[in-house]
Amino acid sequence: QGHRMSSAPPPAVGGPSTVEDSSDAAKSGLEPKLQLLIALVERLRAHRTLAAAPREQLAWLVSHGQLQQFAAGEMLMRTGEPVVELSVVLAGRYSIRVHRGSGWRRVMEWRAGDVGGLLPYSRMKVSPGEVRADEPTELVAVHSDHFPALVRECHELTAILVHVMLDRARHFRSRDLHDEKLASLGRLAAG
After folding, report:
1. 20: left (phi > 0), else alpha (psi -120 to 50), else beta?
2. CA count, 13 A, side-chain hemisphere, 97
3. What is the DSSP letter of 144?
4. pLDDT in tens, 129-140
C-alpha cells in the first residue's frame, strides 16, 4: 500500500554544536532526515487547511507522521477496512467511492491542501467505501495512537481538525439526503 517513508522525530535543536557534531550527524543520516522534516513543516505552513496552526504544532505533526506516496489508481483503503490514520494531503488527489445500491458513486475527494482520514474525536471506525488515488498523491499520515498527545499538546491544530470533521460530516449528510430524495423520486416515477 503506497510507498511509505518513516519520519522519525527530529533531534533536539538549539544546543551548542561543533564541526565534529555536524559531521557525525551527516554520517549517521540524521541531517537528511532533519532536512526532510524541516521541508515538510514548511510545506504545512503553506497548506490551505493547516497553515494557521503554530509552527511548533506543525513540527509535532510531522515528527509523529509518515510521508506516504501513492500512484494513480492505487487503493488506499477498502470498504469496511479500519480507518486508523489522519491524512494531510500535500500533493495530488484521492477520493472515496461508496456503493449506493445502483453502483459505485464518488461521494468525496481530497486534494492538496485538504485533510482526510480519521480525525480526533471522530466516531468513524471503518471506511464506508473504496479510497483510491485519482492521480499521484503524497500525504503525511499520523496514526490514531498519537491522537491523545495531539489533543493534549496541539490545541490550535486540534481545533482546526475538529472543524474539518464537522464540515465533512455535513457534506456526507447532505449527500445522503440528496441520494434519498433521488431514490424517492425514482419510486414515484415508477409508480
Report:
1. alpha
2. 14
3. G
4. 999 999 999 999
Which of 69, 101, 60, 64 is closest to 3 using CA atoms? 69
d(CA 86, CA 94) in angstroms, rounded, equals 14
- Residues linked to residue 85 through DSSP beta bridges, in sequence order: 143
Question: Residue 70: CA atoms inside 13 Å, Cβ hemisphere, count?
Answer: 25
| Pairing mode of beta strands 75-77, 65-70 | unpaired
- Exposure string of 152-171, with b = 16+ CB inside 10 Å and e = fewer, is eebeebbebbeebbeebeee
| pLDDT at position 134 | 97
In 37-164, the DSSP E strands lie at 65-70, 75-77, 85-99, 104-111, 115-117, 130-143
**Cα separation of 73 and 11, whole Å?**
36
Question: Would you tell me how many other CB atoms lie within 10 Å of the CB of residue 54?
Answer: 13
Place of cell 488515488: 133
Q: Enter the pTM of the model.
A: 0.75
Grid cell listed for 77: 483503503
